[in-house]
Specification:
heterodimer, A: about 110 residues, mainly beta, 11 strands, B: about 110 residues, 5-stranded antiparallel sheet, about 0% helix, globular
Chain lengths: ~110, ~110
């Protein structure tokens, strides 16, 4: 069983479109995250939700809107896609009241053309 | 401003020898440090961690050393195996309400047979 799964793995879309990436974790963790790996390979946090409540929003454009229907899911919706949004997006989860590591999904490679 | 730095983008080591990956940080508030390993087209996978109250943590072939006064940590892999070839990311966090991970830029390790 995959601990953190995100879909799709690859996404190619045109500028201006709206797209969503889904993420689910079956680890029972209370916190989920979205990270972005840019062309320089830096992994940077975008959002974090703890028990469906937004706790981190790292100066991400308003076109990005995370949604957490329950604590096992954190989806990322992106409006009006731009060329600069092309990157690999990773979902992750952790249990923040313990010294535990974050578990990552396999990533979604988004290409905006 | 990069708070976590991995100054060596790549490292090549002979199989059986020791691999030493280095990481420096600037934020003295960091109290938890992690190493992740990443294969192409996969998400980062947790390798080993260390709390700031310790200076060493060992798990099989992997040992992480923390030098708080120098704000430096290192990952030792002994003996190195070809399957260890991957990108290694150093990460740090502050155990406040967010638990976000700040990542370095990664070091690509190649273990030559």
């Amino acid at each position: 069983d995959t601990a953190v799964s995100q879909t799709p793995k690859y996404l190619v879309t045109q500028m201006g479109n709206d797209k969503s990436i889904k993420c689910e974790q079956n680890l029972g963790h209370d916190t989920m995250y979205w990270y972005k790996q840019d062309s320089k390979k830096f992994l940077k946090i975008m959002f974090s939700y703890n028990n469906k409540e937004l706790i981190i929003n790292e100066t991400v454009p308003n076109r990005f809107s995370p949604k957490s229907p329950d604590k096992a899911h954190l989806n990322l919706h992106i409006n009006s896609l731009e060329l600069g949004d092309s990157a690999v997006y990773f979902c992750a989860s952790s249990q923040i009241d313990r010294d535990t590591e974050a578990f990552f999904g396999q990533g979604t490679r988004l290409t905006v053309v | 401003d990069q708070q976590v730095k991995q100054n060596s983008p790549s490292l090549s080591v002979q199989e059986g020898r020791i691999s030493i990956l280095n990481c420096d940080y600037t934020n003295s508030m960091f109290d938890y440090f992690l190493w992740y390993k990443k294969y192409p087209a996969e998400g980062p996978t947790f390798l080993i961690s260390i709390s700031s109250i310790k200076d060493k943590n060992e798990d099989g072939r992997f040992t992480v050393f923390l030098n708080k006064s120098a704000k430096h940590l290192s990952l030792h892999i002994v003996p190195s195996q070809p399957g260890d070839s991957a990108v290694y990311f150093c990460a740090a966090s502050v155990k406040d309400s967010s638990y976000k991970l700040i990542f370095g830029s990664g070091t690509r390790l190649l273990v030559r047979p």
